[in-house]
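Hey,
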Amino acid sequence: MNRDRENILKIKNGQAISLSEISVLEYREFYAMVLKLMDAEDVHCVNYYAYPDNNNLKFICFLADDRTQSVYLLSHILLAGKVPGKLESLTSRVNALHIFEREIWENFGVEFEGHPWLKPVRFSHNRYHRIIAINDYPFYKIKGEELHEVGVGPIHAGVIEPGHFRFTCNGEMVLHLEIQLGWQHRGVERLFLEKPKLLQMTILAESIAGDTTIGHTLAFAQVMEGLAGISANSRLDAERAVALELERIAVHTGDISALCTDVAYQLGAAVFGALRTPIINFTQSWCGNRFGKGLIRAGGSHYSLTDVLVQQLRKLLDDFEWRFKEMADKAYSLLSVENRFDNIGTVTNKQARLIGAVGMAARASGVKRDIRHSHPFAAFRDISYVPVMLERGDVYARYFLRRREIEESISYIRRVLDREQCFFSEATPPVPETSLNLLPSSITVSMVEGWRGEICHSAVTDEQGKIIHYKIKDPSMHNWKAVELSLRGLEISDFPINNKSYDLSYCGHDL
């Protein structure tokens, strides 16, 4: 923990600090400081939220500096007599903050004056404005005799979670798309406060987004370890990195299969779909669950990556790699596939920066945003990872980025397995903690680069060390806006392909 010359508190990923260390700024000073820090391209907002503090409303803002591997922690407060109150909106100056201010407005009624689209995010049951119903969502309107609207969802003709997509079209061309989520808000963050046992909270973390079990549970485990003042040994860090990259390989492979399906390339769909299976089957051999439930635990692990499993994994990766390459060489050189993906759903580098895009959506548009590199955790602290970068920002870029990331993940896992100090016969991870004594009156932030992108968990404790606020951010929260922007000027029939190229999470957003 340290402060720069302007007295801004800086912490590292996973570090816990006392609430008393945080300088509570006047809002004008907070406003100016956020603008100054975010003027740098390498600084972005990880999370900005509010929580009740006695009768006051305390605001916490985490800004990640990718150059220094530090996280700036800023705060301001609304006193009881001024809650919910009004604040000048930062969104008009920094577009990427729109979603955070909207969520604070929805939860606590704070009016952000000058916000260009202050509207609900999730429709939680305990939202401040109960009178606002989900069926009254204020969609953006365009008037014109030649224009028409097309509504899709929230109930879809397939195995998909609820979400409504409102297209404003001129003939077949989409002029504007607005996505309305919040149909199944589960109150996950509130449940973290109601579950007293560590195991209950861990199982809850595993269920935040079913396709990102490893990513979200690792973020949770790092929160608890930071607040408990414990750290993982090198073996446990290595196993966690391997599990995270296996999750990335499995989901990316499945998504490549789905994209092939969307352009009727059945050979690619079948082969890539089949290639995903041995990856998740290995995870099941490792911990008893194909998606990794039970594998990540605070302080230790019940399922060590034994020498036998390491040899099985090496053989699996060797077999997977040549099969994947053979099919990828065909799929990625097929003109009918390439032509269908080229110049579809483009998000420019400028747009990606403006909306605060993260993960694949950012890297496919030339924005170097990858927590494994910029704010390393687990084995990524000792064994560096170089992000895969592309520039075009279209469906083909997101399609091709998956191939490159699969190849890099295989290479990275091998480098971890070759690290003798992590994997030798006598080394085992510690037994997981069953209960933890958390630091009182403290806060921490934990970031993990899941397969979609930047996952962020944050927790605040009271004087007794009990968690009084838990905050989760899935990368989808940033990137749904990219889906909206990238469909403009395309035919409405391009939507399924464009949407699948992001493969964002409904449940990760509708916490």
